Amino acid sequence: MSNTQPIEPTSATPAPRAAGPQVPDKVSLAGLEDRWAASWDAQRTYAFDRTATREQVYSIDTPPPTVSGSLHVGHVFSYTHTDIVARFRRMSGREVFYPMGWDDNGLPTERRVQNYFGVRCDPSLPFDADFTPPQVGGEGKSTRAADQVPISRRNFIDLCEQLTVSDEREFESLWRYLGLSVDWEHHYQTISGESRAVAQQAFLRNLARGEAYQAEAPGMWDVTFQTAVAQAELEARDYPGAFHRVAFHPAPDASGAPAAPLYIETTRPELLPAAVALIAHPDDERYQHLFGTTVRSPLFGVEIPVLAHRGAEPDKGSGIAMCCTFGDLTDVVWWRELQLPARSVISRDGRLLRETPAWLTVEAGADPGAVALWAEIGGKTTFSARTAVVDALRASGDLDGEPVPTQRKANFFEKGDKPLEIVTSRQWYIGNGGRDEALREQMLARGTELAFHPDFMRVRYENWVGGLNGDWLVSRQRFFGVPIPVWYALDTDGEVLYDAPIVPREDQLPIDPSSDLPAGYSADQRGVPGGFVSDPDVMDTWATSSLTPQIAGGWRTDPDLFARVFPMDLRPQGQDIIRTWLFSTVVRSHLEHGSLPWANAAISGWILDPDRKKMSKSKGNVVTPRGLLEEHGSDAVRYWAASARLGTDAAFEIGQMKIGRRLAIKVLNASKFALTFGGDRGLAIDPALVTDPLDRAMLAGLADVTDRATAALTAYDHTRALEVTETFFWAFCDDYLELVKDRAYGGGAIEISAATASARAALGLALDTLLRLFAPVLPFATEEVWSWWQTGSVHRAPWPVAAPLRAVADGADPALLGSAGAALAALRKVKSEAKVSMRTEIARAELVVPNGSATALETVAGDLRAAGRVVGDLVLVPGPDGGEGVEVRVAELLPTPPKPPKSQE
């Protein structure tokens, strides 16, 4: 698949309106957002033409923002980048499929509903049709679970749906105000009936092909939210702890004398009862004599082996480690590869098991004191159990020295506040290459096919895929999500037959197995021997979000649309979710369609606060955008966003927004100024009328800018496109407009000269081109100016091309405009230093100009004399070879006439 498409606009310029320009007496940015947003909606300016062929379509897999409160300025930043791409591709002749989604299922919505309404979900409770939440709005209210009213799952889901609707309405309002050129007829929710059906259908197909499977296995578990957590959702954080040097006891030697203790260092002594082995590196000479022997654990007296594994670190602590089931992910690897027994002691609530584990009984060979110690620590939190075990180790003499404080790395759920535990549970997985080397290689190959913008982001994808240590855990023990669409039969003893799940037909989707029935069963068979039970879990939110191309594109219900938009052209997203959203979407598309889901991935950087820290809701340092947009204007905020390249972190800068506002105002004022030269007739966009050397030079420069801006936008470098356009625009305003205004005005003559016609036509061509070049970044200001003198919308006008401008320029040197501007600046500097008005006339002037530009400047001497108010001779003297800049050798200023007195009434 091609990563970029050729851009073939239908024409260089659109047709101007028949009547003259309708320029307002006073121009302003105020109110443009509301006025033009309403107009674009009424005119369906951004509506997608679904009759376009796939080759004519540019489709975008728009990120669905999480609907759990408010948008922040980081959203404005990255979504502006996407909108610039959409506007450019639309003007370049493509039909842009630009939908919007709302990510409203999953934990963020649940947490917001809990805090907003003061409730929590208890699935054991019955539905209450008359339930009224205890509060509406969570500000200043307690967020402790004990203070929240328990309600049924159905009541809880009703509140989730109620709150997301109001949040989505506010989000859409802000997006419209920002000027996103979304087709609002194409939008979706990740929890809608269609989204649930898509997610369930894809899962059932994964299951049918053997890509989805269920397993009882150790996995990361959040004790606060009571749910399993996938590898992609882990976040390593510093966590205070302490190293404890603990003695294990080898068997006595041949003479019966006790052997020297074997010391390990651990930060989790409470897991001593879960120890299953001591492990050292096979090349570590200190432990060669112990490999293959056993030791007994302190306090509990359980006999465990001493084994070798290359994952052990000889230079860390004592070089030998305790393997517990399970303290961390390394334990899981050792347990699996060395085929060790599972002795889990931590339950899902984060507490140690209440019943004494079987291997700690006297009958199993443990020390007699093990049962008594377990009676003390069973049921305690890991923190309290740790304290009790350390006290017991001191008393037994098995603690060497005192604990040494340290900061250890612990895994957290990215939305959680407590370290994760590893517990054994039955969960659903989808193969992603973490346990299948062939599939891993296929996923890496997909990464090489995908065009990353910027390209250096590709390594993040490759590192993630290369570092996978397990398949994708997709089941969650939550409430507001897409249900796992399976049931299980119960045997005559009421045991669940997990190996033979009952699945619905695809035409029955979406289903909720907790209320819907499997074929052949009745409601009274639910939960009874010989009957059935439903799978209680929901899917990970990424299991739905990984299908956004299929959801937005109509995979299930609109195959005609899907064929026109898939595989999509662009996935824009943040760098922090390459490992989750980007990778999981590649996995699902590869498994279902045998292709990439899109050709390009545009990766935005982060927004940094004044302390250079990433802005995020969790850090509490975000800025909400509504006030910024209203204070500075949407075009100004978009300018700030466009000033940062993809993949580059950017500082939150009000100053940059002020520069953007100044630019937008200048577009209005300069356009009004230029349009006034045409009078009632307007500016004629007729290339044949352009004959003056300065006009041709200006258009030659504009042709170069058009080429560079087009190439930059085609390569997803919106910042470069803005830089070259803005630089030219300010030179156009400061130099060209000042140089040609007298000639363009034409002295007010009814019959205009060829020189005046040339200036006006050049102004028309330049204004027409510049407005279109700025349109993707400054949609409101450019649309406002366009409406003064053109028909239709600038955003449906063809993207400008350089060839027609270059033909008009007829080989002119664009450097001429800069040289003329420098000469004019030199004349003005004389007046400025003399502290006289710029309207002061100069009787005679002599300028020393760069040797190579003297001849060319002679061709524009008339414009220089008029703009500089030189009423007599203007002599241009070539300077020495290699000389740069312009020097005023002679400048005879005439007296400034006094201002006429104000009339007295």
From TrEMBL:
| E.C. numbers | 6.1.1.9
Identify the main location. cytoplasm
Single GO BP term: valyl-tRNA aminoacylation
Q: Which domain of life is it from?
A: Bacteria
Which reactions are catalysed by this chain?
Answer: tRNA(Val) + L-valine + ATP = L-valyl-tRNA(Val) + AMP + diphosphate
HAMAP family documented for this protein: Val_tRNA_synth_type2 (MF_02005)
Motif ('HIGH' region) positions are 65-75
Give the Methionyl/Valyl/Leucyl/Isoleucyl-tRNA synthetase anticodon-binding domain ranges.
Answer: 695-842
Region (Disordered) spans which residues? 1-23
Assigned keywords, A-Z: Aminoacyl-tRNA synthetase, ATP-binding, Cytoplasm, Ligase, Nucleotide-binding, Protein biosynthesis
| Similarity remark | Belongs to the class-I aminoacyl-tRNA synthetase family. ValS type 2 subfamily.
- Bias regions of kind Polar residues — which residues? 1-13
- Protein function: Catalyzes the attachment of valine to tRNA(Val). As ValRS can inadvertently accommodate and process structurally similar amino acids such as threonine, to avoid such errors, it has a 'posttransfer' editing activity that hydrolyzes mischarged Thr-tRNA(Val) in a tRNA-dependent manner.
The record's annotation in InterPro entries points to: aa-tRNA-synth_I_CS (IPR001412), aa-tRNA-synth_Ia (IPR002300), Anticodon_Ia_Val (IPR033705), M/V/L/I-tRNA-synth_anticd-bd (IPR013155), Rossmann-like_a/b/a_fold (IPR014729), tRNAsynth_Ia_anticodon-bd (IPR009080), Val/Leu/Ile-tRNA-synth_edit (IPR009008), Valine-tRNA_ligase_type_2 (IPR022874)
Comment on protein domains: ValRS has two distinct active sites: one for aminoacylation and one for editing. The misactivated threonine is translocated from the active site to the editing site.
List GO molecular-function terms, semicolon-separated: aminoacyl-tRNA deacylase activity; ATP binding; valine-tRNA ligase activity
Does the UniProt entry include the keyword Thylakoid? Answer: no
Domain Aminoacyl-tRNA synthetase class Ia span(s) in chain numbering: 36-118, 147-652
Q: Where is this motif: 'KMSKS' region?
A: 614-618
Question: Where, by residue number, does ATP bind?
Answer: 617
According to the record's subunit comment, the protein's assembly and interactions are: Monomer.
Matches recorded under Pfam families: Anticodon_1, tRNA-synt_1
| Name under which the protein is recorded | Valine--tRNA ligase
